[in-house]
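Quick question: what would this complex look like in 3D?
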Amino acid sequence: MTEISVRNLWMEYGDQIVLERIDFDVAPHSFVSLVGPSGCGKSTFLRLLLSQEQATRGQILIDGEELPPNPEPDRGVVFQKYSVFPHLTALENVMLGLELDRGGFTGRLYGRAKRRAREEAMEYLGGVGLAAAASKYPSALSGGMQQRLAIAQALIKKPRILLLDEPFGALDPGIRSEVHDLMLRLWWENQMTVFMVTHDLREAFYLGTRVIAFDRVRKREEELERYGATIAFDTPSDPAPFVTELAAKDAAA
Amino acid sequence: MALSRSGRLINKHPGSAAGRLLAVLPFALLLLAYAVGSDIRLSENPNDKLLPSFSSLADAVERMAFEPDKRTGDYLLWVDTVASLSRLGGGVLLATLLGAGIGITVGLIPYARWTMSAFIAVFAMIPPLAVLPILFITFGLGETSKVALIVFGIAPFMMRDLALRVSELPSEQIVKAQTLGASTWHIAWRIVLPQMMPRIIDALRLSLGSAWLFLIAAEAIAAQSGLGYRIFLLRRYLAMDVILPYVFWITLLAVVFDFILRRYQVWAYPWFVSERAQS
């Protein structure tokens, strides 16, 4: 069970303060939606959670321990674009995490080890409904399929935290709601904590068990540089009906 | 306002048969112009050397390619071709290895970029032909200096091009790879290099023209065999009947290499071609 604590976090680029006084705790197995206007620093916050950048002040603690200085497999990520590797087939994209882990210096597996990794990867591909597309390159997949692939690719590492940076922003509405339910099911089954940055408030409240909004408190032009965004509101959100169903099913079993 | 009923030039396209005909047209015109010009000059002076007739060109090809040389007993065209291609191949291979190795390192590792990119940028500005004397002095007049000139001429371009291509990879990919457990080495080996392979072929295709230039320049100055050597040797005798087929042969080789590289790229890296078609 993964608990996340953010302690008085500040992010500055030179004179420009982007985030200030970010302070909150996240209970294990939460689905946190991060919302806010463009430029409010929600993607910056996600980069800090990823260790892609380092905060100027303050800390992020995972189960009481400070974040490592590099992105690591304990925190998976799905970006809006470019999350999958164009030179690998769908299956190879999912297998990559296993190959890097078990393949030693070359990061490749051969023979029986490769067959085993392939079977494992096929299960994850099947889990996101892409078994039939295993041998296709990402350029032959639709936007929704690419995002599902990116999710499977991240999940095979069994991350404790999954970070989603506007992952469904570029999808058609119909496809979107399909991927939403898929995402909820995977979140439920994998017992991980999800952070999702989104522009879409409905999506934020539908998926999230908690919605946090970043915004600037001071908005006068001469104040924009010296005052960063902070938490404007933070509210629990009822789990989606789909999750209640999953929970009921689990309870019955 | 009166609207013109006829199509605007930028919107008119030839059909496929007409398109092919148009593509062949300039070649046919060039041949025709040559034939007419040659005919006129030869009818005025049968000993004219500038534009030999097609039959004397064919005789020269026969002599150079299919009859042993009277002095050495060699089939000169093939000896020259083998000599030139081994120099070209050696130079291009070495330049590609250097270009890919250093280019990827510089593109991927910030410390390498800070250390090397200004140096490479300045180095690339040195005119390769200006250092040819230095190469001859250092490596002697043998094969090494010719290969070195080709490497000197095209490796800096390949390094810079590949460093640029690597830096164009979305940073999301590099972060994603790290969250999948990749080390720096893994990222270079499994993420960057495979995606650079088709781009190395692009850089190679662009470099081959320069590679030929440097090869022929080096052969013109100091060599005992080679396509460039032969052309510059026969220039003294105004032997256009041999020079023209040699130029044609060099061009043909260049076209064939380019064609093979392009075909190989499509065959070996289908993902690259379809990705490029989408962007």
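Answer marked as accepted. Residues 74-272 of chain B form a domain with the MetI-like fold fold (CATH 1.10.3720.10).
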